[in-house]
Protein 1
Amino acid sequence: MTHGLLLINLGTPDAPTVTSVRKYLKEFLADPRVITLAAPLRYLFLYALILPFRPQRSALAYQAIWTKEGSPLLTHGHRLVEKLQHYLGDNYHVVLGMRYGKPSLYDALMQLSHCDSLTILPLYPQYSSAATCSCVEKTLSLLKTTVTVPQLHLIRDFYQHPGFIIPQSEQIKPYLATHDYLLLSFHGVPLNQLKPTHCKTLCVGNCPQPRTSNATCYRAQCFATSQAIATQLNLNSDQYGVVFQSRLGHIEWIKPYLETTLPELATKKIKRLAISCPSFVTDCLETLEEIGIRANRQWQTLGGEQLTLIPALNENDAWIKGILEICDIKLPSYTK
């Protein structure tokens, strides 16, 4: 029996140019799960307010993080696939597919069409409609056109799984002794996207642990991840905080916002700040540019001495093992 492992990430432009970025944003922001307006309003918003202006700004941001190998998200993604394939051997076929852009989910599934079973792992620790569900919906819509559907194993989220929490915590640990404070920064979502997830209370402070009533609440899962990391690292509430980044538009998003929290921390005489982004397992525009460059610049203007972006898990060996645990892949020969 041949097994397939499909890793799904959001996507990246082909190049850090205005043309490539516009093409990518056009596909990305046309997704009704990303911008949840009715179709006429969504396309008006996209074509009148975003595409005429944002590609130029985003292209500059991509240029700031682009490497000789290309997009960091794609480069790390390929390395992750290579390492997993090495560990899994010939009985597994590991493929990366992007929800938007290349390598496409269609091409990824074509490479896996010979597999008898297929594990689908969206690389988002916390569940959200805009990211996780969009990826799953697209994948299943492509699979329904095949003659034979393989046995499916879908990973919806892994926000508290030890296979994620332990490597993420170990990634953070070396930075604690040389910094005054730790920020855990998660990708934000519009506040109105929490309402369909049966979240009974749209929290202002810490969210309660996910239960039946809020099992798929993105904000609750982010706070659960934060608490699990803090517990693993023996941090008290005075040593770390939780924020949300990457707002788009002028509607209200989940709080607290990163850009308004930084000035508050500066008034508390915090000088050396470490930021980890546990909603991103791969370094990308949101980590490298938004935190590593823009947030760093803001911190310097506020009088901070140091802002350190803690690298994402990327193709970390402990994360490779974590993925196998999350996917419940047991290998007799796997010893490390």
Protein 2
Amino acid sequence: MPNENEAVEQKKSPIHWATIGIFFSTLAVVITIFAASYGYAQLTTITITLTKVISSLENELTNTQRNFVSLQQMVNNFATTMQQSAALAHQQEKLLMDWQAAQEGNLDKWYMAEAQHLVRLANDYTPLTNAQTITIALLQRADEALRNVKDSRVVVIQKSLATDIYNLQHSPQVNINTLYVQLANLDKQLNQLPLPIMQLKQESKLSSDMTKTDSSWWQKGLERSWQMLRQIVIVHYNGSHTLPLIIPDEKIFLYQNLHAQMENAIWGLLHNNMVVYQLSLQQAMDWIQQYFVQDAELTKNILQNLQALQKITIQPLTINLTPTLQLFDDYFGIQKTE
């Protein structure tokens, strides 16, 4: 018996150590996995932090570059301002020298410079809308300044200036504000234009079979059903001179298109675009003549007003003051050579 117990204990001992080895091995594996997971988590956190830091540095670098570009532009602007200031100082010095010469009694150069400046202002105003009055006033002031010049060579400039004033005074004037109000009023009346209405002819007589008293009840019912089916779809023939019939769903689109053409005409008026102005009015007139009742009084009035507006020329002034300005330049050029 003792020998048997010792044998059993010897058998259990290796199994016990094997279990302990497996336990420690498993524990080591778990610790390794935990350590690897912890290390991966820390590495991920570090990576995210580095990414944020790099992104922040890139943003700061971009802002720094922008600030540098802005600073460089400011430096360039400052240099340009300095150059302009130097040129202005040179001009002021020249003006002071001219003023000293004028104090000695010779004011012709000053009157000529004033007249030239006024003509340049008038030349800048000529392309503008409703600027005919102020352009004439500027040229008249320039003519008054030239009358104070004692030099006989100014007569050529005075003649050219008088010709420009005459051409401006006798050129047609266009009141943009009045035309705008007229177009706006016509645009409001477009929705009242009458559309043609197709009158459907009613059948005056029923079939002769319906009037027969000897027809049976089922024949009368069949004939009445046939007459009702014929009234469901009615086809009418319109001649070549008949206005097209607009269905109710298309009516609103027709009026909207007319309003769009009037708005295009107003745009052309405000921007001095003669082509857009005339083409838009012509398109509106074509649609009115094509789709609306021509005998209506409102239609006739709108068409007459549109035709009258289309004939008006809205182009800006075409007076060219360049030859007169060239005479001033020639005069000052001769003075420099003397």
Protein 3
Amino acid sequence: GTGTSGTLSYTYNGVAAPAVSTVSPTSGPAPGGNTVVINGSGFTNATAVTFGSTAATSFTVVSNTVINAVVPPGHSAGGNVFVLVTGPGGTSAASTTYTYVAAPIVSTVSPTSGPAPGGNTVVINGSGFTNATAVTFGSTAATSFTVVSNTVINAVVPPGHSAGGNVFVLVTGPGGTSAASTIYTYTAALTPTVTGLSPASGPVSGGNTVTLTGSNFNGATTVTFGGNAASSFAILSSTGINAVAPRGTSGTASVVVITPAGASLGFNYTYIAPPAPTAVFPTTGVTAGSDSVAITGTGLTGTTKVNFGTTPATSFTVVSDTEVDAITPMHLLPAITSY
């Protein structure tokens, strides 16, 4: 006859969809390419990882609870997307976000040019500067920089090529590096020129301070007197330097200023040897003074005083580097006491 069989039970073992709990780090550059760690469950047979609607560049299932994924490119302006994992049981819920961080944008730099040795400060305007990690002029890092706000950076320009030229100003942050679009111009450094010295002469022993006047002294690295480096020097301005003369030899020495742009033409400085009298004629005279005597020797050109003992000559005339004529002063004999 006909009838119905007995009832038997059958159990469907459902496969749960993956669950994403965290992603680390939670943000990265808009161009992607960085690796993140996704934590959760149900990852063993994962077939896809997506950031928003874009598949990860690649991913590796480390365990049932961990996936390493290479982030795909996102929108250049940045933004948030859900991180999703798909497996045999379906796709994880849209609950864990990843943030694409836009690269900084440099719109202007002011001023747009400056000296080849750098050292001047410029203001960089744009956006996305808050967490800036680097500022470069071409491939050279700024000497220093300060993030004033999300839209303003103050930067000290590093040295450029002495011949000048154009470079891109770039700002780097968590979202990457700004596009190469804003130009800064290094102006060619001018060779220094020395036009005056004060004083223009000094002792062969050196040690005296000489003030150099001229132009294009900024960035000076060396000052020489006859090829010998100044004992020290200080740049007062682009037109002035104070230098301590080194020891020299009697005669003329060229003073030269050297900067990254080159060396100046020499400007004459005179080293003066101390006077060295060797003879006096006549060798005797009356105590009343007023005798004319000729003093001979070397280095007498710069004579400023002639003394007889401790008493200055009544007058003197520099005849040459080897002769000074002087009028003797009165000489008082010691008083004699009678007993």
Protein 4
Amino acid sequence: MPSPLPGDLSQKTLASFPLAMVLADPNQDDCPIVYVNSAFVRDTGYSANAVVGRNCRFLQGPGTRESDRSKIRAAIEGGEEVSVDILNYRADGTPFLNRLLITPLRDPCGKVTYFLGVQTRRQTSEDHEERARELDERLRELQHRVKNHLAMILAMIRLEAAEQRQAPEFAETISRRVEAISLLYDEFATRTGGEENERIHPGAYLSRIASAVHEIDGRPEVRLNVEIAKASIAIDTAARLGLYLSEVLTNAFRHAFGERDEGEVRIELTCHENTAELHVLDDGCGTPDGAWPRADSLGGRIVLSLVERIGGDVSVQPRWPDQERPGTRVTLRFET
């Protein structure tokens, strides 16, 4: 059975994840890998083409303890989460101690659809014990966030699949959404531990999302301008905000300008005492009152769902009400 995920997903959208990641499909024979990211390629020396379609046990070797193999096997068979330090081998035969975290991703009915594996090479020197403990704690935190955020993306993908979208457009949509979370982990991975690590300044993150969407869905002659005020928002809110911005920008690039090739899309984040407003503005043909976002369209349902998760409210108005080309202003208000 072919993988339900696009073959170029890891190359296009997971390359910047800070930790090695694997997705395996337990609904296929022998639970094969369906994609890996570039960090996995870097850490193991195996190319993506060499591992997709194979079970992860190929990383094991003569020094791998049977007890570790059994622990992983039991967790997979039981659909449970597991953490284990296991001796693995690179493509050139070099052994390394791998801190492996495996967690099941489930559909709304509770069925396991994928197993997510996040791995990092363990420090073994006593001189690095304190640093190793710090990395372990951050790894557990990051793995938990990866699981939750990918589960949110997979729910969105299921909505897309139900609409039977064309394969190339479907692949681009998945790429764009996972890219948004990937960029967030870039920001997260550079931070030190502590309570402040629960929040980020979203300027660079939202700017990079805007650039990524412009590259995937934008038109060359449509200018993109970003102006982000300094703010501090929770990591989980940032994840949802990134997905929201990705959806709204894509709608603007695809529908705002009609047959026109040129135009402008502008993103502004303004902050008040405990609230913020994210504006997406264009100088296009305008959006009829009440036409978008609506619950009877797929894109509208996704945007409204993300707004609800953020705990905000969204409004859509003309940018210049009295002009021939009124443009559109989409405003999301939320608490920081």
